[in-house]
Prior knowledge:
alpha+beta, globular, about 15% strand, 11 strands, about 35% helix
Amino acid sequence: MEHHAEAGAEQLGLGIKGVKSACAAIEREIAAGTTPGAVLGVMHEGKQWSYSAGYANPKPKQGQPVPASKDTLYDCASLTKVVVTLPLILQLIDEGVLTLSTKVSDILPSFGTAGKEEITVGQLLTHTSGLQADMNLHSQGWDREQMWDVVLTAPLATKPDTEVIYSDLGYLALGRIIEKSLEIPLDQAVKGRVLDPLGMRHATLTPALEQPGRYAATEYENTIQDHLCGIVHDEKARALGGVCGHAGLFATAGDLLHYARMWLEQGAIPATAGSESGGGDSRILSRAAAIAATRTHTGHIDGTNRGLGWVLKGDKMDASGDWMGPGCYGHTGFTGTSMWIDPELDLAVVLLTNRVYGGRGSSVAQLRAQVHNALTGAVAW
């Protein structure tokens, strides 16, 4: 670890002590059994570096244990919300197809029931719609059409715009809005409009299951008598076929750093992205959209600080640690993933773990804070 951390610090222009401390924190949690393995991806001033430790799959049914590596694809869980759904909605706003005040029921008529007639796209993005957080879709015996009907016609849990309820249902609806607006499936939309232009070559909503060794295993699933590996962990996403607005993305740390770099460049496609778009537009998002998404939209609701999709400094779901600045933003995923960006420091940190491998009781909240603190402290001021 030590030699690798030293090389990483030199490559990134960060203090050696901080980079070593971040790696040591990861190794402590692996030794404690919090997660079987992890991959850390760091970008500073356009330079990127990754560090891996432990196992992506400690006990596969066939073959030897699979070490975690920079090429391991992790189930990103709710990072899907900000890497897939958010940029596509912002693009549709850039293109004049939607606005933040567009009523969801104008695009999805079945949504406009049970007091939801006035709910807007902006409220779904900021989790202020009043929709409930979650619901059980997977064990009711419903087919896919019935599940979507239940999602879209679900009643409100609270009055809109009065509190933040972090809602998967809202992002499921946003995924449907994208598909209806673009008239193509969500996975095709994100591939053509985000993943390919940014050179995120491994990222996908539709994993290639013939290559199980590429994936970090998540939770044990009784129905298959094995750990999920290349199969989405989120039950709703799995029941709906894996292509959803709230979960389902698989990506490497490098993929996610490419995405973070675009945000650090306020929507522009970095010159080093290796775009496959054939010399098309030089931006994923307008600068205006990138700025708007990372400023607060919930100042009227006490105890919250959310942008469009992003969690901002001081929100109850803020996982930035102690040293990142007031302009930082990020998001986490239930499986043990996170991405945090501090534009003032030109720093992005991606931490991918499969903490649900041993069940849902393990927490990487302290690990995120420790890693973020160590790396933020390693920036030369």
